[in-house]
Amino acid sequence: MNKTTNRRKSAAALPEFDAVLPRTRRAQIAETLRDLILTGKIAPGSQLVEQAIASRFGVSRGSVREAIWELVDQGIATNRPYAGTFVIDIDVKTMRELYSVRGALERYCFTEIWPRRTREFRTEFEARHATLVAAIQKQDRAEAIKAEMHFHSHPYEFSQNGVLLETWHQLSKRIQLSFAVSQVHVRGEDFIEECNRYLAAAIGDDLSMIHGEIDRHLQLGMDAIPHMDETGAEHADAVAPK
Amino acid sequence: MNKTTNRRKSAAALPEFDAVLPRTRRAQIAETLRDLILTGKIAPGSQLVEQAIASRFGVSRGSVREAIWELVDQGIATNRPYAGTFVIDIDVKTMRELYSVRGALERYCFTEIWPRRTREFRTEFEARHATLVAAIQKQDRAEAIKAEMHFHSHPYEFSQNGVLLETWHQLSKRIQLSFAVSQVHVRGEDFIEECNRYLAAAIGDDLSMIHGEIDRHLQLGMDAIPHMDETGAEHADAVAPK
DNA sequence: CAGGATTTGTGCGTATGTATA
DNA sequence: ATATACATACGCACAAATCCT
Predict the structure, then answer these.
(1) Which end of chain B is less crowded, N or C, counting CB atoms within 10 A of the terminal residue's CB?
(2) Do A97 and B162 touch (CB under 8 A)?
(3) Number of continuous H segments (helices) and E segments (strands) in chain A
(4) CA quadruple A35, A39, A45, A47: dihedral sign
(5) DSSP letters along A27-91, please?
(6) CA B105 to CA B165: how far, in whole Å?
(7) B21 touches chain A (CB under 8 A)
(8) What would the mean pLDDT of B16-45 be, rounded to a whole number?
(9) Please, which residues have CB within 8 angstroms of residue B94's CB and are 6 or more apart in sequence?
């Protein structure tokens, strides 16, 4: 039944790395659910009913249960004991917080890698940028979100700082979820221009410039927020006027 | 069998708040295990055997299994499919990363709260500081570690930024684990003096001063690291030019 | 390099606690 | 206040993979 675990050890030299680590049901279910949630196919606030998901996937409740808890621990679902597990419904305040913490993290990241950037760093960044632009022009919303995350992950991956990267991944999942919540339409040429500026600053020579771009870039994201209705925005304006 | 569920509803007015939120077995087991790990009573690298823990606690394997996965998702244990879950054995590189990311986070935190600090902020900070000093003087290692975490959590809690606080909690658990790994002895008067300086800067009027103190404070922690033997530091110098 | 012991991964039935309509 | 749906928890069985001798 598990077709992914055929590990043939041939005598030839194997250029393959990352040797197909055995994926458990738990991991597969969690990944599938996470994808469904982050792309908005499972609406925020939905209850994740174990039995329903189990029969839908054709697995046992136990596996589903564990997968669901993985989502809870990752912050994209929440659990009320004996009541159920529900997809997080991010409010405006949390979105602001996500952006502000991300800003601090990203400024720090660029500061760290700045003198260590190589030619490869730039070419890879440009490649991801091209993918992102293509996705935006195709008006493929899901693809664009994924591409943007991949684009912005690059400096973190390049930092060689595992803790920093993990922290970013934690944040990025919830940021991605916030995209699904606020139905921000695929932004057009303006946004492409914005990404161009970001990229230019990131591979340029002036550290303070990318810091400024980060602030601008995130400010744009926050400006798109107020379109949301006040679904749970009790503390929406607890932030000081800047 | 469950003796804690006798819920007598008397007619008298109940001054009790925080009405005993239902704690599941999963949560209790996870907390107990986490405490055992973070205080070093379960050594880093140990395998967490489900059946053994289950019979030790007198619960089913399923509950233990879920609790263990909570630890994995929190980053203080790691799982290899079909091989087992093991308490993380933090290496030197990861410790450095933890400290550096924490530094960035903490500088940002103070920057955010700086103009919003109230009198209450100061008094609470001083109270936690006093607790920490007392613990150090008592030479109670476990108590001191807990007190230090509580002390340093205060600015994050005061920030009213839930995302920032969660991120800190994630980091702090692993930092606490690193304390258990590196058998840093309870430091003496020097360290108390260090904490005094930190507190003074934190409640003072010069933002750049607390930024400097953060760097110094973390530098002290990193300086204590090289004492570690290479107990499981296989990848310790994977950063250096080979 | 076998092969058995150990441990995890998964499934299923069942009983009970809890929330909610 | 009752009923129902669901989560929580237990126990057992077996498959699958790893570890160890």
Answers:
(1) N
(2) yes
(3) 9, 2
(4) negative
(5) HHHHHHHHHHHHTTSS-TT-B--HHHHHHHHTS-HHHHHHHHHHHHHTTSEEEETTTEEEE----
(6) 10
(7) yes
(8) 83
(9) A162, A163, B174, B178
Query: Is the pLDDT assigned to residue A100 strictly greater than 50?
Result: yes
CA–CA distance, A150 with A97 (Å, rounded to integer): 21
Dihedral sign computed on CA atoms, order B57, B61, B62, B68: positive
The pTM (predicted TM-score) of the whole model is 0.85
Q: Are strands B84-87 and A84-87 parallel, antiparallel or unpaired?
A: unpaired
d(CA B70, CA B24): 13
pLDDT-wise least confident of A44-58, A155-169, B49-63, B218-232:
B218-232
CA of A35 to C1' of D17 (A): 28
Nearest CA in chain B to A175: B163
Encoded tokens for B13:
């007015």
- Are B88 and B78 in contact, with CB atoms under 8 Å apart? yes
Alpha carbon of B125: minimum distance to chain A alpha carbons (Å) = 23
Region of poorest pLDDT, from A83-97, A103-117, B101-115: A83-97
CA A232 to chain centre: 22
